[in-house]
Protein: BBSome complex member BBS4
Organism: Lynx canadensis
Amino acid sequence: MAEERLTTRTQFPASAESQKPRLKKAQEFPILEKQNWLIHLHYIRKDYEACKAVIKEQLQETQGLCEYAIYVQALIFRLEGNIQESLELFQTCAVLSPQCADNLKQVARSLFLLGKHKAAIEVYNEAAKLNQTDWEICHNLGVCYIYLKQFKKAQEQLHNALHLNRHDLTYIMLGKIHLLEGDLDKAIEIYKKAVEFSPENTELLTTLGLLYLQLGIYQKAFEHLGNALTYDPTNYKAILAAGSMMQTHGDFDVALTKYRVVACAVPESPPLWNNIGMCFFGKKKYVAAISCLKRANYLAPFDWKILYNLGLVHLTMQQYASAFHFLSAAINFQPKMGELYMLLAVALTNLEDPENAKRAYSEAVRLDKCNPLVNLNYAVLLYNQGEKQGALAQYQEMEKKVHLLQDSSSLEFDAEMVDMAQKLGAALQVGEALVWTKPVKDTKSKHRTTSTSKAASLQQPLGSNQALGQAMSSAAAYGKLPSGAGGTSHLTKPPSLPLEPQPTVEAHPNEASAQIREK
């Protein structure tokens, strides 16, 4: 009965759709970029471990053909300091996508970080062929040429970068080239244009203020440093520069107040401790000055200006052996500065080594063509040694320098120097009428505020010029007349350690703190 019911069921015809043949599913191929978004997300969050895990998985799926994963892996290697590995990966990206200028730019940057500047220039030139409107390529080419000391080509490339697109960093590098060439006027013009373009950039304002300060144009220096502090009241570089200006004018207590603020931001700054030390020196707190300068020397053992200041302070305290030690070290780092040899000669004179003192004075006279103090002190030594003809020659040379300085500027010479020069001239004319004695070691040194010459102010770094002038005075004061005339003639620029944002590129294009913009 049940079987009959099953056989008598109505059979419905199949639908037309079910009769159509089913299409086969297309074969799935791996999508090379399917996890790029996740790689990018981890990278910008700086979650590098998770980023590397995703990159590893992506490269396994794509058999190493995912360009973006390789690119980000190379960036991470560079951040970790593995420059050579990053270079190899960027070269792989360049092979995968040879028409991409960005890959070549990264290859060139890795070469630059490895110090291969010529190879970096070649790669940048190849990238420039692919993209002729990229200002970064021109900028980075200019930086590479700076390191090769090809300043003309560097200027050309940086000007090209500014023509394509104006950026603060390009102005900064162009200004540093002029500073490397010793052309402060052109450097100031460049930084003025940069400030016009970016008036709120505190680094540009501070650098321009430092340049004016270095030239002795205090009004403009104070104006630009004040603007920098207006936009960023915690800018320690500007505060340090303002403090050095106050220190230059003898406001040691106010300068120390400024330095206290800076010490909270950068407690291990060598220029800071140098300037604090020279503030204490200006206040005649010599032990505190030496302690601060020793700390600065510990933080920057190869900075000749700190060694210079230590030598001056030890000369003032009549610790001639220590002064000789620090001045000799400073000469090793700055062998072409005449004042260092002069102070070394003062120390040698008091160490009863007149022959080496004469050699040091001779070198100082050869190197320094504008400072009459060198010739005056040398003449004092020669006269003390009985060499009147040599003393007369140095005295006449000193007179020539004084006349040149008087003609070029309305300079008021230090009264002590004038008095010493007059007594020396009288002694040389009268001959045996006056009797000179050799330097007395227990002589009290006199401290006076210096009047620096225009030529000197062109080179004087930032810092405690007045305090250093006092040290220079005391350093030159060890050849004394019985009549009480001090040999403290000081018409010199007493250099002190510049601030960290020093615009001059001495040993350090900032010491060239050249920067290459990274994509």
